[in-house]
Sequence to fold (387 residues):
Amino acid sequence: MERMKKMRVAVLGSTGFLGEQILEVLSQEKNYEIVLLSGYRNIDKLLHQMRVLRPRYAFSPYFMGKEEKDYISGTRLIKEIGVLQKIILDEEIEGVFFATGGISFLELFLDLLDTQKWLWVASKEMIILAGEIKPRDFFQQRGNFIPLDSEHNALWQMFRMVQKETVHRVYLTASGGPFYDWQGKLSDITPEMALAHPNWRMGAKITIDSANLINKGLEVIEASIIFGLDFQNLDVIVQKESCIHALLELKDGFTLALLSPPDMRSVIFNALHPERNVPNPFRLSDFFRFGTLHFDYPVPSRFSGFYLALEAGKRASGYPTLFCGADEVCVQAFLKRRITFDEIPLIIERVLERNIPGPRNVEEVKKVYRLGMKIAEDLITERSISG
Ligand SMILES: NC(=O)c1ccc[n+]([C@@H]2O[C@H](COP(=O)([O-])OP(=O)(O)OC[C@H]3O[C@@H](n4cnc5c(N)ncnc54)[C@H](OP(=O)(O)O)[C@@H]3O)[C@@H](O)[C@H]2O)c1
Fold:
């Protein structure tokens, strides 16, 4: 994006693993100005970012009086989400990065989708929830929307190279996570073991979701929403090195693959320079390091959470949202050792047994999400009482 004037951008989730990488990439760019940072609980990190980057605005609902002493001249501290929404929707901010966990910015995200501001979005739950109420081809029609999940970003890059009608099948790749070849009992897997992902550095929620491949199931739903794809044309292939991010099998028998080392900074960099005319200062492909590329197919049935997510995606009508709410609670319960690793999909399966009406607006989507959380929480509590 060659521009005379700097594009003013907001980074939501700047204190997270991905948010920090977005800041690292943006701070080397001369065409972008970071005007707003948003964190959540990690106030020290947010204050540090504010001192270095001096944005005009910084948001956290956890700002307390003491930060006022550390007030950095020129940065307005925002605690109210309503005020944040108003500032971001204002003309002044031209692009927004979504790298937050949770769904607390869902309304803001939906409002932004109806503008023409640039959106770079990694927050998959938010896309899944928005997909409940947006028309099927919404994301393809909108433009100025770049997915930041590496697989979806790879698909976004490849769909720019071919006509959608020429595509026969779409494959997202999965590393398989730390337990793909695990021979022991799934119930013996501790939070510490599950938090050690072999290829990517990420926050706790997405790392646990990656360890049981629920993340990959959520990504299939996300891809179906962003690219308007049917589930029968979407599949997952295990590619252990995380070097191929997605594959497009074309009708003429050829397959496109997008390769790069597993480094989100390259994904972010490409999202800022999709026309590919600026050299990437981050890691470039080193095929000698990979040596051999390994593929495996299909995802083994013991990763039942992956298949439950697919089922929820195919059922649609609120079930993807119900799934996300239940999964959020289950991951936190596993991290607190209230349930075991293998119980995560067992609880979600029980939650999905519930009959729900399909949500028609954002309030109903949030209601279904909270219902998923509540049923999962009740099942976990019941289990703690009986166990
Ligand atoms: N990390 C990756 O490589 C990667 C790749 C693809 C997609 N993603 C997606 O990107 C998102 C962030 O991932 P991550 O690995 O960076 O996670 P993370 O390290 O846990 O960071 C989450 C960020 O969101 C903020 N946050 C948490 N709860 C919030 C809430 N209720 N309201 C507002 N902000 C909240 C956190 O603030 P505090 O830390 O200040 O509490 C932090 O800035 C997730 O949706 C993930 O699925 C990440």
Summary: The chain has a mean pLDDT of 94. The first strand starts at residue 7 and ends at 12.
